[in-house]
Amino acid sequence: MPFIEANGVCIPSIGLGTWELRGRACARLVEQAIKFGYRHVDTAQMYDNEREVGEGLRASGIPRDEIFVTTKVWTTHFAPNDLERSVRESLKQLRLAQIDLLLLHWPNPRVPLVETLGALANVRRLGMARHVGVSNFTVALIEEAIALSPEPLVCNQVEYHPYLDQTKVLNACRHHDMAVVAYSPIAKGRIKNDETLTMIGAAHGKTAGQVSLRWLIQQNVAAIPRTARIERLSENIDIFDFTLSDDEMARLSAMGSARGRLTDFGLAPKWD
């Protein structure tokens, strides 16, 4: 599995997103994904499935140190004592000694960022997380976080797919040697019927979804497609045997705009 490298971290370039996956089905999907070759699994406190993700990790039989596990702290736990307590609970749910990447799930303007980042750094120093980062941060928030964080921030996890222009965030992350991890990388399934992506895919013997994932990988962006279907697991990881041309990359990039955002609600910051 190829990696995305940034600021001392190596993140497997394709991972499994687990939002909305629950119970036995979640554990089984995680187990099967790892057996298919996935080495990156993404969860969050808010998903309410950390226990099942941990069960899937153990059931796979793959050594713990070969799997990169991300979880995210929910915004109601951003006060320093709450943050540390919530991470201990995440470790207990996952039945892990350490999380590979711990992220702040969304910005929370009600808690001073300096306090939250201090707590995040302390969790890393205590050995509960190997690396720390953020999610859904804008350029302004990235700049503020970098200036305030006592420990390196290695990642910003954001919505990213061909319909959403994320050029500003990408450039800011690259400037600070932060990795970008794309959630909703196939636009919550909307990609699969797209005429342009389908046509490009046909030229390579691939699906529209595979083209979207490949477009991200070729930008040195990791992707965490979510699926509830085991047969889709093998499709999403089968993207390393073809390359999009510069022209194809440009055509896909030209599709993006600010209007393409799919995840936007009350918690959201003022987007770039």
Write a brief caption for the model:
This protein is α/β, with parallel strands linked by helices and 272 residues long. It has helices spanning 23-36, 50-60, 80-94, 113-125, 139-148, 167-175, 195-204, 208-217, 230-237, 246-253; strands at 3-6, 9-12, 16-17, 40-42, 68-73, 99-104, 129-135, 153-159, 179-183, 222-223. It is 40% helix and 17% strand.
Can you describe this structure?
By secondary structure, this protein is of the alpha/beta class. The chain has one domain: TIM Barrel, CATH 3.20.20.100. Helices cover 40% and strands 17% of the residues. The protein has 10 helices and 10 strands. The strands form 2 sheets. Strands 3-4-5-6-7-8-9-10 form an 8-stranded parallel beta sheet. Strand 1 and strand 2 form a beta hairpin. The protein is globular. The protein starts with a strand and ends in a 19-residue tail after the last helix.
